[in-house]
Each structure stands twice: as C-alpha cells, then as structure tokens.
C-alpha cells in the first residue's frame, strides 16, 4: 500500500510463531491475565473487551469450541484488515492459535470477504507453512495435546454477514441473517457450540500482547481506549491509506497527518458511523468519544452533504437483510425523506417524524445494521442543517 503509517504497536517487530511459542509455555489463566491487563477492546467496531469474551468461551462447557476470524470487512471505507491479511498474516493466524489455546478450541475458521478471494491461495499457502513449522496441527510447538488448525471460508458479499451471528449462519450454509440474542455465540455459536468471533485486527493485537505483555499494550492510547488503532483513511486528502495511530488522536491531528485541506466533515466509523462537522474536529478518536472500527472518510468543502447521506442510505436499503421491520421499512422511509428534501417537497414536521423513526430503529432493530444505519441520517441532518435546508431549498413547508 502506498500510504501506510507504521506505529509502535500493531506494526511493531514480530516474527511468525512468536506468540505461539510463548503461549504454549504459559497457562490459559496467564493468557487471560495478560488480556485483562491490556484492556484490549475488540477492533470490529463494538469494542467488546476481548478478555471477557474469551473468559466466557473458555468457561463454557462443551465437547467442541470454535475460533472465528471475522475478515468480512464490509463497512464502507474500511480496508485496514486487507492490509493485515496481505502483509501480516502471521499476526492474525498466530492470534487465532492463541485464542484456540485459551478457549480450548481445535478449529479456527477465517470468514474471508468474498471480494478478497484473490488472497485465498496465498493465505492457504501461508497456513501450509505454519503446519510445516508445527505452528498448526497436532501437539503444536511440542505442547502435548494442543491441537489446532485453521480453514478459510469465503463470504458472498452481504454486508450483514459481518455481523457475528449472521456470519455464523452463513458459515453453517444458511441465509445470512442475524440470530436472536441471547443465547450469545460465546455459548451457542457455530454449530451451536461456544465460539469466539473476533476481528482480524483484534487477533493481530493479541499476538503483540502475548509477546510483549498486556501492560506494555496498555501504555499506549488512553485509559479507556488502550493500544493503537488502524485507521482506513479515504476521501479528500493527499495521502489516503492505512494509518496506525494511538487512540486519543484528535480528528484535527489525523487530518494534518493525512494532508487534508478545507475539510468540511469527517465520517467516523463508515456509513454506519457518525458525521462530525468542523466545529468538533477537536474530538478524540476512542471509545470514550468518537468510536470507530477504523473507517475515516474525509469530505472537503466541495461536497454536497445531502448527496453523501443519500449514498449511505441507498447502501443500507440495499443491504438490509429484510428480516426485521424497523430495518427493512425504516431505511426505505429515511431514504424517501432524503429524496423529499432533494425535490423540495418536505415538511419539517414530517422530517421530525423521520428523526423519531431513526431513533426507534436504533433501539428496535434486531441487529447492529438497523441499529446503526440511522446514525448518518441523524448526524448529517443535525450537523449540516444550514447547508441542507438553506441552499436553494424551500426551507420546509
Ligand atoms: C452490519 C454489521 C456488519 C459488521 N461487519 C463486521 C466486519 O466486517 N468485521 C468485523 O470484524 N466486525 C463486523 N461487525 C461486528 C461483529 O458483529 C462483531 O462485533 C465483531 O466481529 C467482534 O469482534 P471483536 O470483538 O474483535 O471486535 C459488524 C456488525 C454489524 C452489525
């Protein structure tokens, strides 16, 4: 990748097998201790503490457990997992082996985004090399009874299949639709067995944490958002690319680093995230403020915010799985509202109803897709109302 900023955590020195060799010499409890010390939160977007997830799967009683790597990377504007998969597979696969050891699983599955099929052969070749080095297979690194292997399965392009329960349905050969929760995958996951589903970058972070220590990791970032994060930066800037930055970096600082000029808005967290206006560029990237799975899309003064919003809502109408009413109908209604504004055929009272609908979707939708799809609608209409309603519009009837 042309622009890749290597920071001190994710891109710090690492050799294939480092974490695996270390982990077989310590106990599961020791691994969980390091994870707790690290305060690592899942990098897939929701920010669930990894130590808690693995503790739950580890404690679940079952004859079989699974480790699933979520490499679906479907959020618009996200491409950081692609770089890890292409250039740092050792970090991901070793992290999966560590997970297998910790939770007591024998099988790991990578759910690879369908569009990343071109990587499949090289990733499988890589797994073959790991088997030769006894980093996968039986009695891994001489640890009697520690058997673990990884297979790769391809997705077919549905955004919702990045949601962990829809992903599991898809892995089982079913239509990709979210499951009711509870039960949670930590108890009832793939094939009804306890399963940890983690993002690509989460596994990469684990490899470093096991090698360098949880407290080392926790030194970076902020109290509530430890470590560093990979950001996929796209849009109106001189140097789009993948950037490793400590959590707590402000949006202003990020814009400076990537050479963004005349920035009007920054979409943090992809289409399902929030749109931040210039007046809030001092906000910090992190779970305590502007949380994100890593997608940063930059818009300069030349952009029309209503067009951007329409583009996002068209995406959600297309990608809603249709299973629950708030998401299936709600996204269509929000898109219709945008078209009414475009056509100068709206009333503020109806738009207020749509805002209420958006808030209802956030709580009533069955999965994170419909819960987060109104975010852009609500934040763009609120933060860019002057542009949207005063530029040639009829200001509502
Ligand atoms: C619609 C939707 C799409 C998602 N897509 C992804 C994805 O592509 N990759 C990912 O890691 N997590 C994705 N997630 C989040 C996952 O459901 C889950 O939280 C994550 O894989 C857990 O891993 P982590 O704890 O390591 O973050 C998505 C969630 C939703 C609601």
Automatic annotation (TrEMBL):
Q: Give the InterPro entries listed for this entry.
A: NADH-UbQ_OxRdtase_51kDa_CS, Nuo51_FMN-bd, Nuo51_FMN-bd_sf, Nuop51_4Fe4S-bd, Nuop51_4Fe4S-bd_sf
**UniProtKB keywords:** 4Fe-4S, Iron, Iron-sulfur, Metal-binding
Cell inner membrane listed as a keyword: no
GO molecular function terms listed in the Swiss-Prot or TrEMBL record: 4 iron, 4 sulfur cluster binding; FMN binding; metal ion binding; NADH dehydrogenase (ubiquinone) activity
Q: Which SMART domains match?
A: NADH_4Fe-4S
The record, for SUPFAM superfamilies, names: Nqo1 FMN-binding domain-like, Nqo1 middle domain-like, Nqo1C-terminal domain-like
The protein's matches in Pfam families, at most eight in alphabetical order, are given as: Complex1_51K, NADH_4Fe-4S
Residue ranges annotated for the NADH-ubiquinone oxidoreductase 51kDa subunit iron-sulphur binding domain, each copy included:
306-351
Q: Would you identify the family this protein belongs to, as annotated?
A: Belongs to the complex I 51 kDa subunit family.
> What name does UniProt use for this protein?
NADH-ubiquinone oxidoreductase-F iron-sulfur binding region domain-containing protein
